[in-house]
Amino acid sequence: MSAADAPPSASFPVNISLSLRNATAVALHVIAPYGFVFAQNCTVSASIACVSTQFQGQSSAYITPVGNAEFTASFLFQLLVMAPSTEPVSHTWLIQGLSAAVDPTALAFVDSSNQSQACWGEFRKGFVLTPLREIAVEYAAVPLITTSLSLTINIQYRNRSQATELRMLPPTNYELTCAAQYLVLATLPGQSPVCGRSPMSLRFPDSIPEGEHIFIVGVTVPIEVPPSTSLSGLFFKVTLHDRAGSILDSNMQVPAKRITSPLLRVEGAALAWSSSTPSAETSITFSVTLKRSLPPTTPAATAAGARVAALLLQMPRGFEHQIIYPTDVTSGNPNFKERQCAPNDASCAWVQYDTQMNIGSYFNTHNRSDKVFNKVRISRDETQNMPAGTYHWTFPARLPSVLPRDTSWHLSLCSSRFCTSDKNTSAIITFVVPGFPFGATSPALPGMNQTLRSSAHRVLIRTSYKLIQSPLFLLLLCRQ
Length: 480
Hints:
Strand order of the largest sheet: 4-5-2-7-8
Radius of gyration: 30 Å
Strand content: 35-45%
Helix content: under 10%
CATH architecture of the largest domain: Sandwich
């Protein structure tokens, strides 16, 4: 018994190979493990007829050969079955050969003392389900906010059918939306899918290509997950459908993020830029809004999961900061207090970034000789209160010549000032901030105009300084 592909909640054919040896049967009774359901017309083989029925709460199939034939010796056939949403507890399939025809609605798995049983067998190993493996969700799990959720999925077609629709069911009390202000098709630019609400779905006019894709939608996070929530209600459920609506692939157990402490009321991560020209130097401004002040760090705050020691900004691949000195990074809110350091402590700085000049890397913990130029970390003074309000920071960066497939930015609030990635356990909140295409006009973030103009002026001065230092400029100057 086997299945070439067994996505959860999908319908697919099961290959059954039987050897009756010296027995002869006029009918077969196949009992599936709990959770599997036979289709009403449960055969895809022309040589048999199949009727779906029930046996003690389990789905079963009554199978007869077409015509006046009997089941003898060895033979192979296929049955159409729908899989459960999660791996069943038991994988055992039971098969009974019957020597006389019976009423399919009154089947019983009889023992050898009953003359209607010709033979029986079981296949305990069964087969395991094959959910989508390369799939993940990212979002800021802050209670009672609506924010961007990034779904990364690697689509591989294992048969001729191709998906035209993506559906996503949220965990209990969560809500999903594909409204225009949230929807970003990072890897399918220019596509205009039809947005469905219940369940949230994206229906495309053409097939979704194979490969890795990033879909950004909106998610509303509840204040908590009720203690009585079933195991199924703790996961996101993602399904890919063909044009007829049939499930081609799925994963019904994509873990939700742990909802953060209600003491952390954070929202409104945003991004702005001064230039969106390929390979250009630009001023990047990122911001976050505190709806509730961050008090000084105490053991109680740390125990409650409410310690914020640093902010980590991770730019998309190919973007690089152009920070040379800490003064190249400016804060737009005077209420932000920088981490205080001893005068001779080179490892302690309120803003940390890799450069070609520094020894080692702040962010590459596996190979410290390899520098990481798309990350910037900012540490706050944890002895000071950080009042509610909007905070933003601006620094120079260079755009790539070609945009990566994933243009998302990630802003993490970390419980440790040594966090190196949004995947660290110390990254207690990570906002997904949609990126921008070349030529895009930057939004205006509240209270940052003067900071951005000042930083843009600084970029102009830096560019002019680099031009003056270039050999071509010196050559032209000498020829005058």
